[in-house]
Amino acid sequence: PPGPAQDLTLDPLVPLRETFGFSGFRGRQAEVVERVLAGQSTLAVMPTGAGKSLTYQLPAIMREGTCVVISPLIALMHDQLRSARANGIRAATLTSADADWRETQDAFRAGALDLLYVAPERASQPAFQALLESAPIALFAIDEAHCVSEWGHDFRPDYRALRPLLERFGDVPRLALTATADAHTRADILAQLGIPESGLIIAGFDRPNIRYAIRPRESLMRQLTQLLEDEPGPGIIYAPTRKKVEELAQRLSSQTGRNVLSYHAGLPPDERADNQAAFVGSEDTVIVATVAFGMGIDKPDVRFVAHAGIPKSIEAYYQETGRAGRDGDPSQAIMLWGAEDFARARQRLFEMDEGRRQGESQRLDALAALVETAGCRRAVLLRHFGENPPETCGNCDNCLDPPDVIDATELARKLLSAVYRTGQSYGFGHIQKVLTGADDERVRQRGHDQLSVFGIVERDEAPLLRPLTRALQARGHLLPTDHGGLALGGDARAVLVGEQIIAMARPPARKTGSRRGQAN
Ligand code: ADP
Ligand code: ZN
């Protein structure tokens, strides 16, 4: 079928309306499209849902030649392919899952393709370069461009291998796209892909309709059940492992009576596709998933995104929570975190090589700062992405219900010295007994009742020990040992000698006895 007209003199608003059915550009789309139409290489950093696809699809139909789209996931490419074709755009993919290679290549050579999607590992192969020599190229669109940066949270070496290809076609403009790139990653993308600094366009990151809340995981099942009762709309619950996904989906379904599905890479492809389709088509379904779920899913009315454990980084958190409320209606993002999440993540640092460890460690510190702050969550998030937001937003847990901030420096010093004096091998329970002067056989046996730290914590301060330990673990001042004990780490020494102040939010008073461990 004949494709849309390729007329360089056309006003972009015409195909925007006629091909895509949109009455106008959104956010900074217009600027990006304008640059690309003028043949200028560009890096567009725009939040999920901002409409990045349009910024290359529109130039693809307006510029002469084919737009080559580099994209990391076959599923993502096929989603894009479907929606492009539904708009009457001449698009094809070249992936291992396609049987129509010959036709696609013929169409490309004949100049009958607006869009050609390809994975980075294929794009860097000589055979593909040879194909590209055979017809004009309008544009290289590099999706998920943060994958090119080792500094980014999702480095893929295949993206690095794109360079020779891009250099070979040096006069073809490049459009790099990402939803998640901090300043360091952005600079890296520009350098790696040869995009001038003036080509950086960053759309605002704020998602004002999303209400952020971050709480300790007290009893995961109880907290999630509550959420599902309060919020009847569709939602996503991210869980750290496949096993946890299965377990939560099953229990939440039977305990809340809601329609709860599961999604992870271990499910048979049919079932995964069915569950995804059911979720997308429904107005009340909850999906429990690993982070494999969500990329490329266009569901505007997701009312909540919950994390049953910490995400990988602030970037990942922003991207995952960003799947809520794309329609602009009020939505919630709730993270339920445990000290053990940070402990495990910090343990993994030791298995990394030096170069990676530093970046990961800083990412973890940034995440801990978001989790630990008594101030506005949105302000921390937006500052992380280089914006200069107001101090308060009025739509996060800490703005709506400001916690009491207490100076816990003295208590932290007591806690850390107890860990130190008992030999950095005991767990929280033992340390707590020592500090509160408990009458305990094991404490006496080890001679810990003779230590100067025995019984130095007052009764009214004792309830703060657990949240303080959690805070110190999140910040890396306390590290887990191989045998479930606690050891000093990070800047613990600076705290001990009084050089560093520890402020923390006063934990809300417990209504019932401790329910920890019940469903964690
Ligand atoms: P991203 O890739 O940035 O996450 P998408 O390209 O998937 O976002 O677009 C998100 C949604 O916004 C899609 O449903 C898309 O059709 C819609 N959209 C994009 N541009 C516009 C626009 N100018 N006007 C209205 N809707 C738009
Ligand atoms: Zn706020």
From TrEMBL:
InterPro entries: DEAD/DEAH_box_helicase_dom, DNA_helicase_ATP-dep_RecQ, DNA_helicase_ATP-dep_RecQ_bac, Helicase_ATP-bd, Helicase_C-like, HRDC-like_sf, HRDC_dom, HRDC_dom_sf. Residues 223-368 form the Helicase C-terminal domain. Signal peptide: none annotated. Its EC number is 5.6.2.4. It catalyses: Couples ATP hydrolysis with the unwinding of duplex DNA by translocating in the 3'-5' direction. One of its GO terms (molecular function) is 3'-5' DNA helicase activity. GO terms for cellular component: bacterial nucleoid; cytoplasm; replisome. Residues 507-520 are annotated as: Disordered. It is an enzyme of class 5 (isomerase). It holds the Pfam family DEAD. The keyword DNA damage applies. Its cofactor is Mg(2+); Zn(2+). SUPFAM superfamilies: HRDC-like, P-loop containing nucleoside triphosphate hydrolases. The keyword Transmembrane helix does not apply. It comes from the Bacteria. CDD domains: DEXHc_RecQ, SF2_C_RecQ. Belongs to the helicase family. RecQ subfamily. This is DNA helicase RecQ. It comes from Altericroceibacterium endophyticum. The gene is recQ.
